[in-house]
Amino acid sequence: MVGSVHVNGSLNGANGTEERLDELRRLLGKSEGDLLKIVSVGAGAWGSVFAALLQDAYGHFREKVQIRVWRRPGRAVDRSTAEHLFEVINSREDVLRRLIRRCAYLKYVEARLGDRTLYADEILRDGLCLNMVDTPLCPLKVVTNLQEAVWDADIVVNGLPSTETREVFEEISKYWKERIAVPVIISLAKGIEASLGPIPRIVTPTQMISSATGVPTENILYLGGPNIASEIYNKEYANARICGSNKWRKPLAKFLRQPHFIVWDNSDLITHEVMGGLKNVYAIGAGMVAALTNESATSKSVYFAHCTSEMIFITHLLTEQPEKLAGPLLADTYVTLLKGRNAWYGQMLAKGELSPDMGDSIKGKGMIQGISAVGAFFELLSQPSLSVQHPEENKQVAPAELCPILKRLYRILIKRELPVRDILQALRDETMNDPRERIEMAQSHAFYRPSLLGKP
Prior knowledge:
Blueprint: E1 6-7, H1 13-27, E2 36-41, H2 45-58, E3 65-70, E4 76-77, H3 79-91, H4 93-101, H5 105-112, E5 118-119, H6 120-125, E6 141-143, H7 146-150, E7 155-158, H8 162-175, E8 184-187, E9 193-195, E10 201-203, H9 205-213, E11 220-224, H10 229-233, E12 238-243, H11 246-256, E13 261-266, H12 269-292, H13 297-318, H14 326-339, H15 341-351, E14 361-362, E15 366-367, H16 369-381, E16 388-389, E17 396-397, H17 404-414, H18 425-428, H19 435-444
Parallel strand pairs: 2-3, 2-7, 3-6, 7-8, 8-11, 12-13
Antiparallel strand pairs: 1-13, 4-5, 9-10, 11-12, 14-15, 16-17
Helix pairs in contact: 1-11, 3-5, 8-9, 12-13, 12-14, 12-15, 12-16, 13-19, 14-15, 16-17
Family: Belongs to the NAD-dependent glycerol-3-phosphate dehydrogenase family.
Protein name: Glycerol-3-phosphate dehydrogenase [NAD(+)]
Subcellular location: Cytoplasm, Cytosol
């Protein structure tokens, strides 16, 4: 694996869970009676599930740990969603009994009848996430005041989309000016920004956080893997990697690990973070192709061959040892194509149920991070300073010119100058090279551009 990878042994039973909690408390310098404070900033599907997993595992140690979620107040639940929530609640006896016991059921009846407006932060306290209404979670402690949520938090989980990360953490930095202890930050965001000058490079969420807050990179980690949030909470077997400094990634991997959720650790933070954003780009195109061809297995396999060759080509630009990323990247891509929100978005575009003009925040799904990633990767790889030798023509070209699917997606989603159906032309172009040739070209040329990841 890139960097050093270790599988952390699990400790079974209640005593093992408390030992892991005590071990992390000691590492963070917590004395007896001093709560370990963990807050998830952002309450999308993955941020909410992550907090719920911790609450289920450690929440009963109330004298040792406090787990909370911050989300913005005032987001109203519309009538159709309230009706669906009511159906979900009544289909789950455990949820129904819990709400009745908490005297919270009546408000869902009133909302179902249109007599009351529910709010996203309100239903999250009952374990119902607006972006994942079909998967009830455990009740969560929700805070709507950002300063209250983060000012003394020991561990902050970034559950925000990459497009909102910088803005929110710039606000957080105002509340940390007088902090003595430096917090630990775990980012779940999969997305990137492109910085085009003076040297073109990728900017990842962990870099945004460090720049906004001044927290050293040693204390900022990335957690990602081939998984779907709702399935993880339903205890489908899953794995993930937590990437970052040796000081924090090993104890945190041990702390986060559960019997159904295996967490490995890795030292290569930025590259794994970028790969998490790259697969979202091609997932949108996969959804388009699936819908436009009536789920044709042949068409989807043709698309997969071309998109994986482009991803492999791009990884050769980003890292000196791209072959070591092949497994994690393909696994994450595969699960996203099967059930991820980016592939779903591509399908809805192709069916005409959504349009690019509707933006990247979609009701019931949250932020479609692949859209901004398409723009960032294409604009970055279009820079003349990154030019590579064309395999057939004796001239230098920008890397984006060798990625026809990325180019089409950019013209469809960002420039909005081509219809969604045009994605098929990227597969049917008679002048297109065999995808194998793109991979061979990447492997046989020195394409690595360390400056893309901010390296000298």
